[in-house]
Amino acid sequence: MPEASRSELVANRRQELLEKGFRAGIVGKAMDWACGSAEGMANYISKLGGSDGAVDELALQFLPRYLQDAEKWIKSFVGEPEDQ
């Protein structure tokens, strides 16, 4: 099975969070946070020499975890969807 692209992963998670009732604005910011965090971690590991792969490929490996954590990130700022 082919790996999902970055845009597919982000779009799917964005839709999940919107369906849970979170507002689009905060969901967009959470997706930016998740992508930026994955890219930052990939750059960090790459600079340490801990990866033979390209930074983009490494970021794609980190992205699913940060996308899952995005819900916690949102809740830390705005609470549960019904609190918004």
Short description:
This protein is an all-alpha fold and 84 residues long.
Question: Could you list some keywords that capture this structure?
Answer:
84 residues, mainly alpha, elongated
Structure commentary:
The structure is a single chain. The chain is mostly helical and 84 residues long. It has a domain at 23-78. It contains three helices and no strands. α1 runs antiparallel to α2 (24-48). 19% of the residues are buried.
Structural class: mainly alpha
**What is the number of E strands?**
0
Structure annotation, total helices: 3
The biggest sheet, with number of strands, parallel, antiparallel or mixed sense and barrel status, is:
none
Between the first and last Cα atoms, what is the distance in angstroms? 38 Å
Instruction: Give Rg in angstroms.
Output: 14 Å
